[in-house]
Design brief:
The chain has helices at about 20-35, 40-50, 50-80, 80-100, 110-140, 145-175, 180-200, 210-215, 225, 230-260, 265-290, 295-320, 325-355, 365-390, 395-415, 420-425, 430-440, and strands spanning about 5-10, 15. The chain is mainly α. A hairpin with a 5-residue loop joins strand 1 and strand 2. The longest helix is centred in the C-terminal third of the chain and has 33 residues, at about 325-355. The termini are far apart.
């Protein structure tokens, strides 16, 4: 078993052994993702030579298959450990992108379609399961407030890396044209391989002796254990409501701008740029401020949901007033800032809450269940938003407002039913002791 050498930062939080390598690996991986996700249909069309229709069909089918694989990934984490599974998934993604340019000429297939489908399926299984394994890895290598810090740092690096990857591939295409997509595929493969090497240096925290002894005396637990945990299922349901809001910026926002507000499409790019810049630039700062305030994770996550609701209400007001183009631009930027603040407050607390609420022996299964709330929301969002938008442009924002308010209420009600170590970034006794010690150090008031 690896020895966890705890270090302490100026803020008093334990540092994770190999933390810099872990975060650098996440950043490098995000650059690889940014090089193909924004151009996914065009990317695979030029790499494989297949039509857009066939590429879209393969991506949909393999994406759904990837969702079905997530529970198996959770079981693998519980059996082999998050770090090992994480490295395997990095390896699969590296191999998959290395093979994409050869999908038109693999000798085992008569045409490029079966080759592309086979490579895309294996890669999609790794891609869809990666969030489950990465969340489990954070739980495996960190304890207490360090989990919240890693959640915030991870999100900031992912946004910065994806933005850098998108800019990088834009430069490649400007220099070499669409032929540059082939080189981008190999660059992705290299990025995932390098990320895996970096993450291999992280060191898991030794399992708590008491928890390990308790788990050893129990029969092997499966997904039935998760399904019997009503507070955790409630937490997952609350996250589904919030996850619909996360999907709004990429799915609903562009449609709303072009149809209901009749605004120029360039505003969508401005909104995405602002959101990405804020997430990358102040994400860690905002999360650190929330963490140092001592707020319970349930309450800070609920605050994030309330900020989402405020942003969605702003869209309803904007869609009702429909001011001139200048006023619309100013209002949209304010709304995006409020929305992004909600994201920055909710994401670290919500992620750490789910990781800490999952019992260690079955953490992988728990987080696979929790991550399905994001995947289902992402899958449902396009059809739900377009159907509501067809009735009235403000209707989807009204539904999202109610969903965000419901998520905030559910989080507050679940607070007393979730484990104390999940609700509090630091044990309540330790927080109270620190406050008492600080009070004792204060000078006594001068006598009148």
């Amino acid at each position: 078993m690896a020895v966890f050498r705890s270090r302490t930062s100026k803020a008093g939080e334990a540092k994770v052994a190999g933390e810099r390598s872990l975060l650098l690996g996440i950043g490098v991986s995000a650059i690889g993702i940014g090089m193909y996700v924004p151009f996914s249909l065009v990317f695979f069309h030029h790499v494989t030579g297949l039509s857009f229709t066939l590429v879209g069909l393969v991506m949909t089918v393999t994406g759904v298959a990837g969702l079905a694989f997530m529970p198996l990934a959770g079981s693998a984490v519980d059996r082999f450990g998050a770090k090992r599974v994480n490295l395997v998934l990095y390896g699969i993604r590296a191999l998959g992108f290395a093979l994409y340019p050869f999908a038109t000429s693999l000798p085992a297939f008569a045409t490029s379609l079966p080759a592309f489908a086979a490579v895309a399926l294996v890669t999609a299984l790794a891609d869809r399961s990666f969030s489950v394994v990465q969340q489990s890895l954070i739980g495996e290598v960190a304890r207490g407030a360090a989990r919240d810090r890693l959640q915030a740092s991870t999100r900031a690096l992912q946004n910065a890396g994806m933005g850098a990857g998108a800019l990088l591939v834009s430069g490649v295409l400007a220099l070499w044209g669409t032929g540059g997509f082939t080189h981008t595929a190999w660059a992705n493969s290299l990025a995932f391989a390098l990320a895996g090497l970096l993450v291999s240096r992280v060191r898991p925290v030794p399992a708590d002796a008491e928890a390990a002894a308790t788990a050893a005396g129990r029969p092997a637990a499966g997904y039935r254990t998760v399904l019997r945990d009503r507070p955790f299922l409630g937490l997952t349901a609350a996250n589904f409501l919030t996850a619909l809001g996360y999907a709004a910026l990429s799915v609903l926002f562009p449609l709303y701008l072009s149809t209901w507000l009749a605004a120029p499409d360039s505003l969508t790019g401005a909104a995405f740029t602002l959101n990405t810049a804020l997430c990358a630039g102040i994400g860690v700062l905002v999360a650190g401020r929330v963490r140092r305030s001592g707020a319970r994770r349930t309450r800070s996550a609920a605050l994030g949901a309330l900020l989402f609701a405020a942003a969605f209400t702003g869209q309803i007001v904007l869609g009702t007033l429909r001011p001139g183009q200048g006023a619309t631009l100013a209002a949209l930027l304010v709304i995006v800032v409020v929305y992004t603040l909600g994201e920055l407050v909710h994401s670290p607390s919500g992620g750490a809450l789910s990781v800490s609420a999952a019992p260690e022996p079955v953490r992988g299964r728990y987080l696979a269940t929790y991550q399905l709330s994001y995947s289902l929301a992402t899958a449902l969002a396009p059809s739900l938003f377009t159907a509501l938008l067809a009735v009235d442009g403000r209707l989807p924002w009204a539904v999202l407002t109610v969903a965000a308010l419901g998520a905030a209420l559910a989080l507050l009600r679940l607070e007393r039913h979730l484990p104390a170590e999940a609700v509090h970034a630091e044990p309540p006794a330790a927080v109270a002791g620190a406050a008492s010690a600080a009070s004792d150090r204060r000078p006594a008031p001068a006598a009148a």
